[in-house]
């Protein structure tokens, strides 16, 4: 059966992991109604019930384009704000870009899976005299989609604290905000069908998911003959593989369930490599079918998988 890997028009490219900074989130919030006695087996909590979280972005080098997928929290919020999230470790977006041989001014495109602060906060920074905000990537086009942009700029009360106007509006004000189109066709796994946009302006497939937030975008691309899915908040960590393990942050958990089921079935059928943005300890995984459903198969670091 044909997989998305064969539908993508492959070009010469390189990809890099960009670690934008680690933090912590409440384990109960991250696993919703699932008891701690279950989720703590894979995601152990500290004395404050907080679990380790990463902001593992992806940089795609393709021809004269450098496409950054998500940007982490950034550093412009107050000390009080960051105090809620317990930053840890030495990672930063600029240091990670430098390690890959680049500077933020080299970035041509910033693709945001969605506009929650921990995914797009690094897209905007203070201006020089700290009187306002400006895009943090001065030469980049910023990509969202129209439905999600409207959702984020006119937020519901439940998500309002995650959609911070200082992270979002300066991109539009810069005149460099663009929208990708919604899904236009579908591909089939052995168990279900997933809608996706095959030909985005950035030359990778996009799966649209509505359970976490409206029209979250999950990029799929082919690299070194492997299909890689950047999972964002559809699958935050490897510990979220069981279908009922849904974040309390999801606005429509009963939509997340079939979305996860469809996507994970396809991932197991076609041996996708799942790039986990928020898993601090399992960067890339594969999955397999079992009697209990789709479960973890293999775990890889970037260097192990792409030598």
How would you describe what is shown here?
The chain has helices spanning 4-7, 27-31, 36-39, 79-83, 93-99, 117-120, 146-153, 165-173, 253-270, 302-305; strands at residues 14-19, 23-26, 50-53, 56-62, 65-69, 109-111, 124-126, 133-135, 141-145, 177-180, 185-188, 193-197, 205-209, 216-223, 226-230, 273-275, 284-290, 293-300. By secondary structure, the protein is an alpha+beta fold. Strands 11-12-13-14-15-16-17-18 form an eight-stranded mixed beta sheet. A six-stranded mixed beta sheet has the order 1-4-5-6-9-10. Strands 2-3 form a two-stranded antiparallel ribbon. β14 and β15 (226-230) form a beta hairpin. The radius of gyration is 18 Å and the shape is globular. The model is unreliable at 1-10 and 185-193 (pLDDT under 50).
Structural class: alpha+beta
Number of helices: 10
Query: What distance lies between the first and last C-alpha atoms, to the nearest angstrom?
Result: 28 Å
The spatial strand order of the largest sheet comes to 11-12-13-14-15-16-17-18
Based on Cα principal axes, name the global outline: globular
In short:
With 307 residues, this protein is of the alpha+beta class. Helix content is 22%, strand content 29%.
